[in-house]
Amino acid sequence: MDLVESFNDYRSRMNDKIMGADNIILKRIFNLDTNCYAPGSVDVVTKEMIGLACSMVLRCDDCVKYHLGKCKELGVSNDQMFEVFAIANLIGGTIVIPHLRRAVEFWEALNAKQ
Q1: Torsions phi, psi of 43, nearest 5?
Q2: Residue 78 — pLDDT band, cuts 50, 70, 90?
Q3: How far apart are CA 29 and CA 38, in angstroms?
Q4: CA–CA separation, 77 vs 80, rounded Å?
Q5: pTM
Q6: How many CA atoms lie within 13 A of 71 on its CB side?
Q7: Residue-wise pLDDT tens digits, 35-58
Q8: Exposure of 36 by Cβ count < 10 A (0-12 exposed, 13-18 middle, 19+ buried)?
Q9: CB under 8 Å, gap of 24 or more: what pairs does 35-39 form?
């Protein structure tokens, strides 16, 4: 299984288990997350790029992979992606570089799936 499929499979399986627990607080958190990225005054592509930059600064590789996948689905270009990477590294500092490496690896894997 490749990098992208492995991540998506794991995320899907675990989300099913989490939702299967029927915990109202967790369901509300997931719902809030979904609604935050819905179309609004800020377009969905920009929201995903903001989410990606924030995830990189917070050093959450799973969130980075998720937002990279959404950005790919939404047609974000390589040039746009590397601008987001640059912003995240500027804001987060050099501690973000290891996450940048993994983000570039995952972005390349997403591009290879085309």
Answers
A1: -70, 155
A2: very high
A3: 15
A4: 5
A5: 0.94
A6: 30
A7: 999 999 999 999 999 999 999 999
A8: exposed
A9: 37/70
